[in-house]
Amino acid sequence: MYFLSGWPKRLLCPLGSPAEAPIHVQSDPQRTFFAVLAPVRLSIWYSRPSVLIVTYKEPEKSSSQFGFYKQAEWRPDSTMIAVSTAYGYILFFHITSTRGDKYLYEPVYPKGSPQMKGTPHFKEEQCAPALNLEMKKILDLQAPIMSLQSMLEDLLVATSDGLLHLIHWEGMTNGRKAINLCTVPFSVDLQSSRAGSFLGFADVHIRDMEYCATLDGFAVVFNDGKIGFITPVSSRFTAEQLHGVWPQDVVDGTCVAVNNKYRLMAFGCASGSVQVYTIDNTTGAMLLSHKLELTAKQYPDIWNKTGAVKLVRWSPDNSVVIVTWENGGLSLWSVFGAQLICTLGGDFAYRSDGTKKDPLKINSMSWGAEGYHLWVISGFGAQSTEIESDSKSIVKQPGILLFQFIKSVLTVNPCMSNQEQVLLQGEDRLYLNCGEASQTQHARGSSAHPEHKAAAAKSPFADSGVESQGLSTLLGHRHWHVVQISNTYLESNWPIRFSAIDKLGQNIAVVGKFGFAHYSLLTKKWKLFGNITQLRVYLRTSNLDNAFAHITKAQAETLLLSVFRDMVIVFRADCSICLYSIERKSDGPTTTAGIQVLQEVSMSRYIPHPFLVVSVTLTSVSTENGITLKMPQQARDAESIMLNLAGQLIMMQRDRSGPQIREKDSHPNQRKLLPFCPPVVLAQSVENVWTTCRANKQKRHLLEALWLSCGGAGMKVWLPLFPRDHRKPHSFLSQRIMLPFHINIYPLAVLFEDALVLGAVNDTLLYDSLYTRNSAREQLEVLFPYCVVERTSQIYLHHILRQLLVRNLGEQALLLAQSCAALPYFPHVLELMLHEVLEEEATSREPIPDPLLPTVAKFITEFPLFLQTVVHCARKTEYALWNYLFAAVGNPKDLFEECLMAQDLDTAASYLIILQNMEVPAVSRQHATLLFNTALEQGKWDLCRHMIRFLKAIGSGESETPPSTPTAQEPSSSGGFEFFRNRSISLSQSAENVPASKFSLQKTLSMPSGPSGKRWSRDSDCAENMYIDMMLWRHARRLLEEVRLKDLGCFAAQLGFELISWLCKERTRAARVDNFVLALKRLHKDFLWPLPITPASSVSSPFKNGKYRAGEQLLKSQSVDPFLNLEMDAGVSTVQRSQSWLGSIGPAHHEIDTASSHGPQMQDAFLSPLSTKGDECSIGSATDLTESSSMVDGDWTMVDENFSTLSLTQSELEHISMELASKGPHKSQVQLRYLLHMFMEAGCLDWCIVIGLILRESSVISQILLLIQSSEVDGEMLQNIKTGLHAVDRWASTDCPGYKPFLNIIKPQVQKFSELTEEQVQPEAFQPITAGKTPEHTGPRAEESRGPSGHGSLPQGEVGGSGLVGRNEEDAARAEEEESFQDGTYDCSVS
């Protein structure tokens, strides 16, 4: 409602003696002038600019006669001031303007500025007037004066001798006798006998009083603390005609203030609370409406130490009340008791170093115009004795503080409640919560579900196309869109009284003293206009001029107006309501609006005073909810009028009992409207009402509801109840229900579809750390924090669902919840509801006869989010309440199993934490094992790492709860396995007749580094590690048995699994290939590797046009089998490529351009084979490769006398290149080579053969066969490889002829190998390749292998494959590999 803004301003009074320090401030009825009293001085201040105009100083002689000044009261026309003094005198001062047309302060403008042209009344608005103060009359009442009260043409004075004087403003009693309070009868209500009990005490007098025009009487506080209300029974004001009512139970009243609009009397009490009373219309008794009091929950250290209430003041628009206490502090409350601001806590009460400040003591305060300012006389004025000595200290000087406020537009323009924007108005600017107008061009699509900005950014499913002007703009951030009001308009029309915004948040209008101004958020321009005596409709596009206006003369002054679709509802000063329709008419080029009166309704019999009507709204809400209407299409028409009469919400709906008007009978131009029924009261203590005329079939509950804000009582919603599946409604069931609920913010707007309430909240910033010097500790910036207003919002759906469940309306709750299930925060709604009910019931001291938790639990099971909701709620609740929760929702073990069945592993992991706390370790280990195995199976590596730590923690008992999640970010793409940080894998091969030192191909693969999946330390060989290892081994075995090599690679890389040592152990068991053909097929599928294409008879090579360069690896063979006509089927290849991880990078469809296509993953090496024969060999050119080609380094041929068959023709080259184009994705190639390296080191040669086949590189096969010859290999493995290769050959002949050319290439090696396997291999000659071997040991063996057979199986030029590992380097790499495991530097991640 009202919010503090910035720092208070200080107005410095002229320096003088302590007797001239201000003690009291009182504004005139128009709040233009302020009378400031000091003990011997009366000053008049102007409000804008805030300047001192005139001062009257009492001479010492008369001051000693009259006593010090105490209070001041203005005459209603601001021409006189009455001042009471300590010795019972009233001094009447006349205020006269002086010096003719002269002004005290005038604005000065530069020549030629538009202001110089001047507008009428320019001087009056812009200048501070020069005034004279003259004492005209002195009246002696002979007793100290307790209270002064202006009442129309009279002044009512209460004195300490128990008398009430009625004095005319000219200073005469007009012969009227003073009324003795002892003669006024008091009773509990006006119905009891006329002779009520008299006060009966001689010394009773009135301590404070205030006149209430709308109740026609005085709220009074007596000196003994009793409170009451005195009303004249007839028009004459004499003792015989007065009667008082009082409540029996209040005996500590201190002060009073009345609210005329809501007919409320706020009595401050010595206890520190404020009791707000109203008068019962029927009995005349005083009824307690509500209390304003601080709670121990909010202010634990001060709530009962505030002292008595010192002052209570209602704002000019009657929408808030400000309260201050004897011990200091200031608080602001809405009409019906919602607390908005309190300076007894937070930054107001504590410095940034935590020390407590002295609270601000207030001696007197008065609201400025429209409530934008509060004038305050602070307590360190009169008491401070060190004024002379410490004149440098600004704060100790007597002065006036001006607190600045921003207020919600609802305080003055309640018809804004049908909009979904929050609009606040300050004295010269407006604050909007809608985004930039350019974003909000489109109206909100009811189908689009608006997302939180944050959620939308993160969510991969967020559809940025359907971004309605919903939560993203309304909740996107905490900042306001601030619009500065046009200065030209403000200068002559300050203060701004009303403002309004349109539905889309694109246009704003403000109204000051005269006329109005219009602002477009799209063009960022203001348009100005004057004259406001008639009801008008202006075109938004044209200038605001009467020439473009449609004018309708209203019969009486319009007090309120509101809009419903194309209808305007007007409430007038004669208590009548008039409905107008606005129609758009296009007459040729000009567009005009036509206004016609539709209906008039007189309300004078129900409304005692027109000023009491807070708001009037036309709505489509009715007690019928559209189903039972005779004509359902009328359901969203203007069905009823809602009238807020002093906080009572009255509804008048259309009378549908009579004959219905059929649409076709009535003339289309005349809208005949049904009459209204007599009014019914819907609710009490209502501050604001929200409703919408939009319709949405999916969210009928929310859109057809009526939302009420009821101050301290929270909010209420009048919700429609719908029968399910359009069945006939029960006759005994009400069709609407009023549900109360509490929210933590003050509501300023309701987003109907989004189930959100928007508001604003004051936040404070301390700047006292900038002022460290002692003298600066008294600066205003140190004493007060800087106040800012921030946007805020709150979900309310869980409150409504809960209220429906309490009332056994579960079916309605389900309908409502299902309609909102698509909202981004719906899971949070369910969680909040469960959490709140659990907290209340589980911590209740008394047993609950009918607990709600089981009902709520059953309700939540209707939604798929049930398992997450329960576990999130449990983890945010203390352990002590878990048993109560799970008694209602079910056993956590069962819920854990449900998560596993639903494949929701993250939620299952959360349940594991619950189980660990609630069950014995054996149970949590059993469930953790289940989850670990499932996570392994699904490749959830992050979860696997947590589970390993969790299982270790359970075993060691080191920690009660599982370790926290690592902060390292999981890489975004999944499926690949990456290499290890700081590690280069050296893949090299030595060829025949070429010394290894001279000829080696080194390739360093730099891989993206992922999170460290560091292996646990090997030395802690506890049972727990063994248990985890067993599970990991079992999983690896299963992956190999199912031929899931890709998963095995990911598994090893992600969990730091020691693959090579495990493969060595399992070489003859799990790591044996049982079915080569099946393995081959499976690898093709897993690695998205295309099967080789069947040769066609004709050649149509894409390489001939020169677009592609055949720079890839040449496969060379001694075989004379011509393998021409390898035509690539480009279609298949493209499809395969599209599934590759690298997406856009095709295997060979790239211009091979060294400058542009070197990727970050790979640095291609240049291969220049060095021959011992020097220049005798002719060496082909070496071309560099790119990431799109296979990982082979150069194409080159070596021509030798012995191997003339190696030289190939040009056409053969082209077709080989074509075949290479059908390789799989580059990433798969990297992965396959990595696996090849692993299997090679572990000695699983049968797997190496399979990978060599799929890579279709004869060099790999040759290398393996060479390895078999050079070292003694297990005979069983040899036999397995032999049968496997035969099986592949058979399969290729029948099912996959594309493999035949490659098999033909390697046929000679395979034949040699077959001969080898037929020889008897002596078993003891076989030495397993272990990590411990050093290069020195294996060196000689490599030398021995260089015989003629080796020469034949591996020609000189056959060195292309980078997957081949020379013996020396192989062992070195293996040793390095093992070492890196030992050191724990084996880092990995899913890429």
UniProtKB/TrEMBL annotation:
Pfam families: Beta-prop_RIC1_2nd (PF25440), RIC1 (PF07064). Residues 441-463, 1317-1391 are annotated as: Disordered. Residues 1334-1346 have a biased composition (Basic and acidic residues). The keyword Phosphoprotein applies. InterPro entries: Ric1 (IPR040096), RIC1_C (IPR009771), WD40/YVTN_repeat-like_dom_sf (IPR015943), WD40_repeat_dom_sf (IPR036322). It comes from the Eukaryota. Transmembrane segments: none annotated. Its main location: cytoplasm. GO terms for cellular component: cytosol; Golgi membrane; Ric1-Rgp1 guanyl-nucleotide exchange factor complex. One of its GO terms (biological process) is intracellular protein transport. Residues 798-956 form the RIC1 C-terminal alpha solenoid region domain. SUPFAM superfamilies: WD40 repeat-like. Keywords: Cytoplasm, Guanine-nucleotide releasing factor, Membrane, Phosphoprotein, Repeat, WD repeat. It is found in: Cytoplasm, Cytosol; Membrane. GO terms for molecular function: guanyl-nucleotide exchange factor activity. Gene3D superfamilies: YVTN repeat-like/Quinoprotein amine dehydrogenase. The keyword Glycoprotein does not apply. The RIC1-RGP1 complex acts as a guanine nucleotide exchange factor (GEF), which activates RAB6A by exchanging bound GDP for free GTP, and may thereby be required for efficient fusion of endosome-derived vesicles with the Golgi compartment. The RIC1-RGP1 complex participates in the recycling of mannose-6-phosphate receptors. Required for phosphorylation and localization of GJA1. Is a regulator of procollagen transport and secretion, and is required for correct cartilage morphogenesis and development of the craniofacial skeleton. Forms a complex with RGP1; the interaction enhances RAB6A GTPase activity. Interacts (via central domain) with RGP1. Interacts with RAB6A; the interaction is direct with a preference for RAB6A-GDP. Interacts (via C-terminus domain) with RAB33B; the interaction is direct with a preference for RAB33B-GTP. Interacts with GJA1. Belongs to the RIC1 family. PANTHER family: GUANINE NUCLEOTIDE EXCHANGE FACTOR SUBUNIT RIC1 (PTHR22746:SF10), RAB6A-GEF COMPLEX PARTNER PROTEIN 1 (PTHR22746). This is Guanine nucleotide exchange factor subunit RIC1. It comes from Lynx canadensis.
